[in-house]
């Protein structure tokens, strides 16, 4: 591991100044479950690591603010799993958080770190995308909101500007019942990153939002407004046809050691049908 300076600012403005001053040579540190590994294996070699856990303005709270449920920069996967409202209103996110690593990893891994790492296999990304998540970033020019769909570019790359820190992730409060679910496929049981991830969110007007990950450079979100996927009476074969159209942008890497492209695409279609079926059931339960 290359030597680096370690900074632990206590004020947000100081962290922003440190990150802005060093640009790509500085890295924020939250739970460290991604960053420490990359520092050790040398794929990241920053001069300065800025630990954000001591910043007074940042927290791990989950609370409602202006029609959104806000997850602070220090909210861990364990915090998400323990939150009754998240389990009730955003079950796909709770299910995704439960898939992340082990208990020890979930106790440290933050939701914000999962997004800033921008892995195509990040488990929580599809759920955040189907729920319409947005990033809250603070930088030298103040605070801004960025839809998560505009934030994720490709593995390790986001649209965060120089000097910016993510202070929270926000999800709109649901405006009615919905059925949602997160599914994933891994190469083996236990610890493993996903070969395919999928989240589905369905509302009573027949709209179905799906997001799939690990089958391309970044997770993708698509919307079915035909009502075909949400209709119990439509046969699976017709739904499979609609899913095939919606998954057109899936492009798994042919060089991944985790699974071949044909397998991933086949599993994406399997998860698609399972996800839609589960969402219909859950929407039915939520409306009855
Ligand atoms: C054994 C193991 C198993 C894992 N299993 C899974 C899994 O099943 N599914 C999955 O999705 N992930 C998995 N991970 C990856 C990891 O746990 C998650 O990506 C985690 O959520 C990252 O959060 P963190 O707080 O640890 O981030 P860190 O490692 O601290 O940071 C990750 C990246 O985000 C940046 N960052 C962090 N906070 C901020 C901020 N506030 N503003 C700007 N940039 C920031 C950092 O600079 C870094 O680039 C696993 C990791 C390990 C070690």
Structural commentary:
The chain is α+β, with helices and mostly antiparallel strands and 288 residues long. The protein has three domains: 5-51, Uridine Diphospho-n-acetylenolpyruvylglucosamine Reductase, domain 2; 62-172, Uridine Diphospho-n-acetylenolpyruvylglucosamine Reductase, domain 3, CATH 3.30.465; 182-287, CO dehydrogenase flavoprotein, C-terminal domain (Enolase-like, domain 1, 2-Layer Sandwich). The chain has eleven helices and 14 strands. The strands form four sheets. A five-stranded antiparallel beta sheet has the order 4-5-10-6-7. Helix 5 packs antiparallel against helix 8 (124-130). The chain is globular, with a radius of gyration of 19 Å. The mean pLDDT is 95. The structure holds flavin-adenine dinucleotide.
Chain-wise SSE layout:
Elements: E1 5-7, H1 12-22, E2 26-29, H2 35-41, E3 48-51, E4 62-65, E5 68-72, H3 77-82, H4 84-89, H5 91-99, H6 103-108, H7 111-116, H8 124-130, E6 134-139, E7 142-147, H9 148-151, E8 152-154, E9 157-158, E10 165-172, E11 178-186, E12 194-203, E13 208-213, E14 220-224, H10 236-246, H11 261-287
Parallel strand pairs: 1-3, 2-3
Antiparallel strand pairs: 4-5, 5-10, 6-7, 6-10, 8-9, 11-12, 12-13, 13-14
Helix pairs in contact: 5-8
The structure holds flavin-adenine dinucleotide.
Highest-level CATH class of the largest domain: Alpha Beta
As for the number of domains, it is: 3
Number of helices: 11
Distance between the termini: 57 Å
Low-confidence stretches: none
Strand order of the largest sheet: 4-5-10-6-7
Shape-level CATH architecture of the largest domain = 2-Layer Sandwich
């Amino acid at each position: 591991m290359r030597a680096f300076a370690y900074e632990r600012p206590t004020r947000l403005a100081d962290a922003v100044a440190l990150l802005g001053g060093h640009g790509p040579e500085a890295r924020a540190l939250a739970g460290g479950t991604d960053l420490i590994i990359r520092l050790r294996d040398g794929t990241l070699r920053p001069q300065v690591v800025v630990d954000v856990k001591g910043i007074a303005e940042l927290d791990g709270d989950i609370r409602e603010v202006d029609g959104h449920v806000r997850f602070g920069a220090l909210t861990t996967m364990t915090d998400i799993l323990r939150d009754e409202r998240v389990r009730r209103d955003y079950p796909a996110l709770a299910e995704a958080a439960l898939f992340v690593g082990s208990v020890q990893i979930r106790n440290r891994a933050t939701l914000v770190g999962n997004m800033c790492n921008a892995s195509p296999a990040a488990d929580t990304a599809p759920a955040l995308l189907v729920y319409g998540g947005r990033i809250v970033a603070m930088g030298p020019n103040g605070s801004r909101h960025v839809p998560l769909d505009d934030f994720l570019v490709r593995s390790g790359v986001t649209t965060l500007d120089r000097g910016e820190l993510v202070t929270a992730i926000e999800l709109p409060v649901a405006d009615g019942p919905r059925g949602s679910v997160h599914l994933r496929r891994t190469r083996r049981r236990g610890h493993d990153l996903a070969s395919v991830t999928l989240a589905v969110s369905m509302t009573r007007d027949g709209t179905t939002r799906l997001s799939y990950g690990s089958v391309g450079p970044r997770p993708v979100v698509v919307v079915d407004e035909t009502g075909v996927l949400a209709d119990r009476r439509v046969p699976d074969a017709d739904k499979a046809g609609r899913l095939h159209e919606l998954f057109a942008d899936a492009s798994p890497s042919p060089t991944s050691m985790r699974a071949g492209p044909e397998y991933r695409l086949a599993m994406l279609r399997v998860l698609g049908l399972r996800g839609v079926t589960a969402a219909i059931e859950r929407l039915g339960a939520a409306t009855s």
